[in-house]
Write a structure and sequence with these properties.
heterodimer; A: alpha/beta; about 25% strand; B: about 300 residues; mainly alpha; ABC transporter involved in vitamin B12 uptake, BtuC
Chain lengths: ~250, ~300
Amino acid sequence: MEILRTEQLTKIFGGLTAVNRVDFVLEERKLQSIIGPNGAGKSTFFKMISGEFPPSGGKIWFRGENITGFPQHVVSHKGIATSYQITNIFPKLTTFENVRIAVQSRKTSFNFWTRADRHHDINEKTMQILETVRLAEKKDVLAANLPHGDQRHLEIGIALGTNPVLLLLDEPTAGLNPVETVETMELIKKIAQGLSIILVEHKMKVIMNISEIITVFHEGQVIAIGNPEEIQENETVRKVYLGGKKK
Amino acid sequence: MIILVLVIFPFVSPYQALATQIIIFGLLALGYNILYGYTGLLSFGHAAFFGLGAYASGIILVRTNCSIWASIGAGLAVSAIGAFLIGFLCLRRRGIYFALLTLAFAQMLYYIAYTWVSLTGGEPGLRNIPRPPFELPGLFSINIYTPTRFYFFVLAFVMAALIILKRILESPFGKVLQGIRENEKRARACGYDTNRIKWLSFILSGAFSGLAGALHTLYLNFVGIEQLYWATSGMIVMMTLLGGPGTFFGPFIGAGVFLYLEDIISGFTKYWMIFLGPIFVLCVLFFPQGIWGTIKSFTDRFSRH
């Protein structure tokens, strides 16, 4: 069953068309990847889906509902979460608090009176997520003091905290060394079992071994869709993205 | 512990009126801290809500024969309504523009109070405000003319406000405020309607500041026009920074230290600001977490080892 569909989705900034009439379909519980050179419009595409940028044109359908132009907090409650390319955490709160705020958003955002740390269901769910992203032992560390690799995992943890149906992962391995990259990919494989994921990545190896379907963006447009082999063989893709070299 | 200190406080402070003044301004700074310390919104016009609360309770006391409850209620209500409107408009903008808008609105109120003499008394201020007895109709009625009685009357309100504030700031809602302070974009991405939450924070902050204003009116039996002046807004910011923004009790300590120093130094010279200024600058430079924040991080480190 399809979970997300964009029709002719377009974003124009001034004179620049960042995303140009993109049709995209994601099946439920699938992991699809988007690749493309810098400035291809991948992050802008994500930001339109998540409600951060209102589209200039086109439509977004999520689980059969037209969510085009919905504000970001509403989209979040529909079940779409983003893990950001540039680490986007709550720096001066503990690792635990970072995830807890996300988990709590599904329950009691306008509770003024009970102590936050007495909500046991929220605390348990938070610990569960921290264990998944392997940060349980660092739960009391200020997020700002975590090493970069852990911050990347926390980034994913916050996204998971909102209990999403669809997870948008924008370069989850940005700035990670090869060992950390492998760890993160293992993590993504683990969480991919329960939800639908769109993954934007630059590291070809990562993309090729994790995704079933790859969409290639170039200058705001989709220039190819296919499985990893097809993409590697595709002439246009090799010209714009792989620099003509066969990998 | 805190209760004990506040109960003994009037008997160790140089005179009881100073103790009363300190807990009123402590409450004002705590109210401001909801917005600045917890939500991360630098308002430079909090005198508006202090003044609105003060004038509302003063005007109703002068013009009607109302009870002490009605006067405090009026102060709370008018400042909350003021924060509702001013917050709605100021929160359209962020950062420095937000700060300047709050300043502009506070100055507008100042000039309104300045020119509307029939209502506010204008430049000389609103005088001869009676202090009705502290009473529950049919139960008891106590006059609160002596400084000690009045101190404990104010303390009852301040303690109630402290308890309510502490609960709010430790509730899930309070945690969201901190989330917005740390990273508003991410808070929104987590599904929080941050604009509405910031607005709520603004109203809460304004209401607590208005309560401080109403108590201040009863304290002086007078409302001075300078309560709405921008220098008062600046003083609130200074008290909060001095004590430790974002810590629960810091601003209260900040208000105490500020007023205590003012009291001592102004005994020697009328240019007390010249001495208080450098102390403030040094504190901000070397103890950016404020007095309470520094003590807290020190004891935290000590208790962890």
